[in-house]
Write a structure and sequence with these properties.
By secondary structure, the protein is α/β, with parallel strands linked by helices.
Length: 730
């Protein structure tokens, strides 16, 4: 039964009734109009104004009355025999409701489950009730230590049956978060409309109000009595949010008065970016309403040939580093060709959170107002880096020497990846870093550490580890040298030089010393060879293909994919070689050629570590056997790329045997079938390419993360002849 048939209570009752989740839905409300309308509107089966009659025999009692009226209803309920009915509520402040329950019952009943649906409308009353109001909206449950697990399960299942996304959190956390994300915006909207309405020119103000004003003030049309109760019930948390906002508003006023353009630009760029990327920033703790989670699958059809010209997105590694070094430089750095994928944007957002003013990205253009090597500020909270291992590993080196504490977090995939390989040498330099179990994120870095330079011999080749230590070395006392067992990408060394910072390279050892500065410059990011690799393989395996890939970065530490495909018999021609911003660039023409299996040379492994998933597809299309060894690092990428690719190839009829440090693939006929990318963007794109030689459709699950490195992969693939499309599931 439901007590209180306003918008929320009425929608809950109507949704339960329409879904057939209860034999009988009983409503209780003292308002005579509500009593008259509830049954004809289909909201309830039975309507009454008598609370004792309403709760008799109930399995669940939903409290949907205003927060300040809650105590009176609870005191009445405490005198009644509720049997084994589960008690729950929809109040938007949980601390006040929990306290009211305890006062009424003398304790917290085990069958009480506090809850709050993050849904609503400026309309109110039983006539506004909708059975689908909670679809794809968050419902936050705040169970207490003594709350029955069976009661929690029952309430959770009911909300899920209404297509709501149910999450749990502590009572205090809920009230703080909602004070900031819901209560404060309502307070500001009410206040702004009231202020403007009181001005003498109010008619003209409202006559010419644009869409932004209407959007922001829409919520001022909400129920005034309900919101009065909310602000009083959640008084302390609202005051804390209001004080913080008032402080920031005063700072903004001063910036306008003093014509401080940089402060204004900083606030506006940070706000715009945060608003645009809320779904990413809050992916793991999404309290806002209308946060929709969509599963994206690919369907790739066989046939076709790859032809034409294409320019793939900018190099992800260089995009990351352009933001990092541009932020630490003196002056304004302008970047062209920036990769607007989620990984690169995570790095950009992290530096915005540390006080750097960054304009864009807009069509690949980014302007960074550098703060100097010692100008970063403490972020307001943990830095969320999504799926980007590059961001986390490189930032750990930079942040180890800052004066403030930081915590680096990421999504579920990144949280499984090893960070001990950077934490261990950083600790040897004097950094204070804590990790979760087995050296995994989150990383908690304590500031004000005195770093000492050191000579570090890397146990395994890793450009990320090397770059992390070189960046830490910019702040360390004395010289920092890193010796690698095999060549890895040298973008950090090249870009440091581009910013005017001296770097010494002798054989396999790279050395930096402190005491120098970074000077702003212009950066033109070349097309990413890792992204181009999918199209190199596509053109190599599909008969009749002839494709020109434009402006591709051909850094010597990254061209393993070209060398390996050529060794397999591929027809790749490097044209128009040139240097842009210290990075070698060329156009690459790829034509179909029959491939043969090879033993991949060990010296090429670190030069193609990110390209192996699609090279495994080339091996599946080659005549004979291809053997890879010395690539154990593939097991700790976004997925275990050796095992996941082996499983997928086997599902498509190819013999693929994983080994501890590689794989053995026998070329053959690729059949249609279903494969799982395990959320790994490179796996998803690789099996899309495999469809060119398949005998039937290839269905690829869990492809949403393709946006992390290649935002328009589907569009570009279709434009050159690969028949792949998306399929979304809510």
């Amino acid at each position: 039964m439901v007590i209180g048939l306003g918008l929320i209570g009425g929608s809950f009752a109507r949704g339960i009734r329409e879904a057939g989740l209860a034999d009988e839905v009983v409503g209780c409300d003292p308002d005579s109009t509500t009593q008259r309308l509830a049954r004809p509107l289909g909201v309830v089966d039975v309507m009454t104004g008598d609370l004792a009659e309403a709760v008799r025999g109930a399995d669940l009692i939903m409290l949907a009355v205003p927060v300040m009226a809650m105590e009176n209803v609870l005191q009445q309920l405490a005198t009644l025999d509720l049997g084994q009915a589960v008690l729950t509520d929809v109040g938007s402040t949980k601390g006040a409701v929990v306290n009211a329950v305890e006062r009424a019952f003398g304790r917290i009943p085990a069958l009480f489950v506090p809850g709050h649906p993050i849904a609503g409308s400026e309309r109110s009353g039983v006539e506004a009730a909708r059975g689908d109001l909670f679809k794809r909206h968050k419902v936050i449950l705040t169970p207490l230590e003594q709350t029955s697990s069976q009661a929690i399960a029952m309430v959770t299942q009911l909300w899920q049956a209404l297509d709501a996304d149910v999450e749990s959190m502590a009572v205090a956390d809920h009230d703080e978060v909602l004070a900031a994300t819901s209560h404060l915006p309502h307070l500001l909207a009410f206040s702004l409309v009231d202020t403007l309405a009181a001005r003498s020119e109010n008619l003209e103000i409202f006559r010419y109000a644009a869409g932004g004003f209407r959007d922001f003030t829409r919520i001022a049309g909400s129920d005034p009595v309900m919101w009065r109760d909310v602000f009083l019930a959640n008084r302390d948390a609202v005051l804390r949010s209001l004080d913080a906002f008032t402080k920031d508003l005063s700072r903004l006023r001063a910036a306008v008065e003093e014509r401080d353009a940089n402060t204004l630009l900083g606030v506006f760029t940070r706000a715009k970016a945060a608003r645009e990327h809320f779904s990413t920033i809050l992916a793991r703790r999404a309290y806002m309403e209308s946060m929709q989670t969509t599963s994206i699958n690919f369907i790739a059809s066989p046939g076709g040939r790859v032809q034409g010209r294409a320019r793939v997105p900018g190099d992800k590694s260089i995009s990351h580093r352009s933001i990092m070094l541009g932020s630490l430089a003196d002056g304004v750095t302008e970047v062209e060709g920036f990769l607007e994928g989620e990984d690169s944007l995570a790095t950009l957002q992290a530096f915005r959170d540390m006080g750097v003013v960054i304009e864009g990205p807009h069509h690949g253009r980014v302007t960074i107002h550098g703060v100097g090597l010692n100008g970063l500020k403490a972020p307001p909270g943990p830095l969320y880096l999504g799926n980007s291992g590059t961001s986390m590993r490189l930032l750990s080196g930079l942040l180890a020497a800052q004066m403030f504490d930081t915590t680096l977090t990421g999504d579920a995939s990144l949280s499984r990846r090893p960070m001990g390989r950077v934490a261990k040498p950083l600790r040897e330099m004097g950094a204070r870093i804590e990790t979760a179990n087995e050296g995994r994120p989150p990383l908690r870095i304590t500031g004000d550490s005195k770093l000492m330079g050191m000579d570090y011999v890397m146990p395994m080749a890793s450009a990320q580890v090397k770059s992390c230590l070189l960046l830490a070395g910019l702040y360390a006392a004395g010289r920092t040298s890193v010796t690698e067992p095999a060549p890895t990408r040298d973008h950090t060394e090249r870009m440091l030089r581009g910013f005017g910072y001296p770097v010494k390279v002798e054989g396999s050892t790279v050395t930096v010393e402190p005491g120098h500065r970074l000077t702003a410059c212009k950066i033109d990011v070349p097309a990413d060879i890792s992204s181009a690799a999918f199209f190199m393989v596509a053109a190599s395996i599909a008969e009749g293909s002839d494709l020109l890939l434009e402006h591709v970065g051909i850094n010597p530490t990254r061209i393993g994919v070209i060398n390996i495909l050529r060794a397999m018999g591929g027809d790749l021609e490097v044209l128009n070689e040139r240097e842009v911003g210290g990075e070698p660039v060329a156009d690459i023409r790829v034509r179909y050629a029959p491939l043969k299996g090879i033993e991949i040379p060990l010296d090429q492994v670190p030069l193609a570590i990110d390209e192996f998933p699609v090279l495994f597809v080339a091996a599946a299309c080659a005549q004979g056997r291809t053997v890879l060894r010395g690539a154990e690092e593939l097991r700790v990428k976004e997925s275990d790329r050796i095992q996941v690719m082996a499983d997928g190839l086997q599902a498509l009829g190819i013999r693929a045997e994983p080994t501890p440090d590689g794989i053995v693939i026998d070329g053959g006929t690729i059949h249609g079938g279903r494969v799982d990318s395990h959320g790994d963007h490179r796996i998803a794109m690789s099996f899309s390419v495999a469809s060119l030689r398949a005998t039937g459709d290839v269905h690829i699950a869990d492809c949403a993360n393709v946006a992390t490195s290649f935002p328009d992969f589907i569009g570009l693939a279709q434009s050159v002849g690969i028949q792949v499309r998306t399929e979304e599931h809510a």
